[in-house]
């Protein structure tokens, strides 16, 4: 029985089958690297700086995967990605051609944010497992559609954020979840002040390498200018990350990293807050770069915990009745009392899974198990950030029902749950 038949039969067995945490390599192929015919076929959708700098190499290194195809609307980036993979790699400008291949088992989506949901849904419907860059969505309603579809189709899904795989953040959450700072009362999260404004730019000729219409996809029609998309023949920071047609900026960009840790430590990563209010500063609406620049948002959960989220620097701080723990990106873990950091987690206490995010995805495919950060978790974390954005836009405190994912009795706020219908043919 080949690997695909084995996995299909096992999945069909459903609840009757008890899976080990990791299937031995001897079951799936060899005792070391799997034979080429036994490896998981990977398709890379999006070949920009995040894909080349972070997302491609782990799949090339893994003994259990082989990258069979790459896809990008920029021909220069596409050719570079194909060369990095090497012999036998196919290249496509249209992601639908990649998804049509039966030998592609899973995809890594590393595109601009406005494409995440349409591509992820198409991949799931095509029977592929999915790892998708964060933030997963541009709207709370999109996230509910995606999470429900993943569950209905029985696909493996990984929200591609690495912060649960950073030792200091993982350790902080385990200590908090096991009561080492007493009753959790306040969480503080911060993100860098990285977004800036830019005035409207003149229209420019579309580069020959770029399929601009396919790049826009579900976004509104707009004249091409370099600062709207990305630098030609370069992997510099792209302009789309600061334009509201394609991205919500730092509030969801870094926010989905740090607030995911806040939710994990609070054991609320499959639900959400019950109140939210915030304030922030937007640049002129007619500018090309027009995402939120600075902000401060406060949330309250049903368990009484308050979360205060602001532009400052990347950190998560948990404050409890008996002390605090501070995890900061690029810095050592700190706590008061300091002895908290020496605490041992007992065998009967909460042990949070700890593994590399790509390895987590690969092993979940092999075992047909769950990832550490699945579609529901990614949706809830992105929703938390988007709730803050909605509160800032409306300028008032909002009540939220995390079970129904609606604002009770608030028509104006509920209209912001779902985005306008996507332009055909990318309708959800």
Features:
428 residues; alpha/beta; Rossmann fold; Dihydrodipicolinate Reductase, domain 2; 2 domains; eight-stranded mixed β-sheet; six-stranded parallel β-sheet; 14 strands; 31% helix; disordered N terminus; disordered C terminus
Description:
The longest helix is centred in the C-terminal third of the chain and has 20 residues, at 375-394. The protein folds into two domains: 3-163, Rossmann fold, CATH 3.40.50.720; 166-345 and 373-428, 2-Layer Sandwich (Dihydrodipicolinate Reductase, domain 2). The two termini are 36 Å apart. It has 15 helices and 14 strands. The protein is of the alpha/beta class. Mean pLDDT is 91; it is low at 1-31 and 421-428. The strands form two sheets. It has an eight-stranded mixed beta sheet, covered by helices on one side. Strands 3-2-1-4-5-6 form a six-stranded parallel beta sheet, sandwiched between helices.
Count of beta strands:
14
Order of strands, main sheet, comes to 13-12-11-7-10-9-8-14
Reported for the largest beta sheet, the result is: 8 strands, mixed
Shape: globular
Q: Roughly how many Å is the radius of gyration?
A: 22 Å
Residue-averaged pLDDT: 91
Helix-strand string: HHEHHEHEHEHEHEHEHHHEEEEEEHHEH
The first-to-last residue Cα distance is 36 Å
Q: Proportion of β residues?
A: 15-25%
What is the domain total for the residues? 2
Question: What name is given to the CATH topology of the largest domain?
Answer: Dihydrodipicolinate Reductase, domain 2
Structural class: alpha/beta
CATH homologous superfamily of the largest domain, by name? Dihydrodipicolinate Reductase, domain 2
Low-confidence runs of at least 5 consecutive residues? 1-31, 421-428
CATH architecture of the largest domain: 2-Layer Sandwich
Give the assembly state of these chains: single chain
Helix content: 25-40%
The CATH class of the largest domain turns out to be Alpha Beta
Count of alpha and pi helical runs: 15
